[in-house]
């Protein structure tokens, strides 16, 4: 039994680039090019007609840009994945594209093998990110400073004899850090959901998250489903962007 062919649509406003990508994809095994668009509006229309598995999307195009085209495609055709293929890897290009629903992001210096891998990755449910983009995400992760826990008010009896805040039972033990941090989290996330989100942002798989947190993969999937619903993200790429935007990194201590 042969592997299924991945049907790909190319969107780029530069004719020579668009035709070059189409020719390159034609040389790659397991890939069939089903259309080529010169702008985002045409890309949306072609997706409606051709129902490709993956769209290779440029960002800066006339009429409708790549971010808006990605948003429309992912909204109307959630089964079609989008891999951005662009000259730009700055934050102003990267994060809006991920938030719009792109699951992959490559720069145009990518070779055929890297493009093929990104297409295969997004088809399998993973993120297809270039090394340059992965480095930028790691830099953002290191730049994000953990939020400090708020001070816990002392009970009616004041601070304990040791000078720390009193626990509800009067034992003088400090409150758990997670309990204090829970009130700071956006969209009603629990501390555990935020920990899972931070590990997704680090690039860990479900199995790796389960090992890190000493829970089952089924439990990890439940947390992911819950946090996706609360934050209104559609996939792991958007979850990464959400984590960076809200500073949800380094939750485990």
Automatic annotation (TrEMBL):
<keyword id="KW-0804">Transcription</keyword>
<feature type="compositionally biased region" description="Low complexity">
    <location>
        <begin position="173"/>
        <end position="183"/>
    </location>
</feature>
<dbReference type="GO" id="GO:0003677">
    <property type="term" value="F:DNA binding"/>
</dbReference>
<dbReference type="Pfam" id="PF00196">
    <property type="entry name" value="GerE"/>
</dbReference>
<dbReference type="InterPro" id="IPR011006">
    <property type="entry name" value="CheY-like_superfamily"/>
</dbReference>
<dbReference type="Pfam" id="PF00072">
    <property type="entry name" value="Response_reg"/>
</dbReference>
<keyword id="KW-0597">Phosphoprotein</keyword>
<dbReference type="InterPro" id="IPR000792">
    <property type="entry name" value="Tscrpt_reg_LuxR_C"/>
</dbReference>
<dbReference type="InterPro" id="IPR001789">
    <property type="entry name" value="Sig_transdc_resp-reg_receiver"/>
</dbReference>
<feature type="compositionally biased region" description="Gly residues">
    <location>
        <begin position="155"/>
        <end position="172"/>
    </location>
</feature>
<keyword id="KW-0805">Transcription regulation</keyword>
<keyword id="KW-0238">DNA-binding</keyword>
<dbReference type="GO" id="GO:0000160">
    <property type="term" value="P:phosphorelay signal transduction system"/>
</dbReference>
<feature type="compositionally biased region" description="Low complexity">
    <location>
        <begin position="144"/>
        <end position="154"/>
    </location>
</feature>
<protein>
    <submittedName>
        <fullName>DNA-binding response regulator</fullName>
    </submittedName>
</protein>
<dbReference type="InterPro" id="IPR058245">
    <property type="entry name" value="NreC/VraR/RcsB-like_REC"/>
</dbReference>
<feature type="region of interest" description="Disordered">
    <location>
        <begin position="144"/>
        <end position="183"/>
    </location>
</feature>
<dbReference type="InterPro" id="IPR039420">
    <property type="entry name" value="WalR-like"/>
</dbReference>
<dbReference type="InterPro" id="IPR016032">
    <property type="entry name" value="Sig_transdc_resp-reg_C-effctor"/>
</dbReference>
<dbReference type="GO" id="GO:0006355">
    <property type="term" value="P:regulation of DNA-templated transcription"/>
</dbReference>
């Amino acid at each position: 039994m042969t592997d299924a062919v991945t049907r790909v649509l190319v969107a780029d406003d530069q004719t020579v680039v668009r035709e070059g990508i189409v020719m390159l994809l034609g040389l790659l095994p397991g890939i069939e090019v089903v259309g080529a668009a010169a702008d985002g509006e045409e890309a949306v229309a072609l997706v409606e007609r051709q129902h490709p598995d993956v769209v290779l999307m440029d960002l800066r195009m006339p009429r409708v840009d790549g971010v808006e085209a990605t948003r429309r495609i992912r909204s109307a055709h959630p089964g079609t994945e989008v891999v951005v293929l662009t000259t730009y890897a700055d934050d102003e290009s990267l994060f809006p594209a991920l938030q719009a629903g792109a699951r992959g992001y490559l720069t145009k210096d990518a070779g055929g093998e890297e493009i093929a891998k990104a297409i295969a990755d997004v088809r399998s449910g993973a993120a297809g990110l270039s090394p340059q983009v992965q480095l930028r995400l790691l830099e953002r992760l290191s730049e994000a400073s953990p939020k400090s826990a708020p001070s816990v008010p002392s009970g009616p009896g004041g601070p304990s004899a040791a000078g720390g805040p009193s626990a509800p039972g009067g034992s003088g033990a400090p409150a758990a850090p997670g309990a204090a941090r829970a009130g700071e989290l956006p969209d009603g996330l629990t501390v555990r959901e935020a920990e899972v989100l931070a590990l997704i942002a680090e690039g860990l798989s479900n199995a790796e998250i389960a090992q890190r947190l000493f829970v089952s993969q089924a439990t990890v999937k439940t947390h992911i489903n819950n946090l996706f619903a609360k934050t209104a993200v559609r996939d792991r790429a958007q979850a990464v962007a959400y984590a960076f935007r809200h500073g949800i990194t380094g939750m485990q201590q």
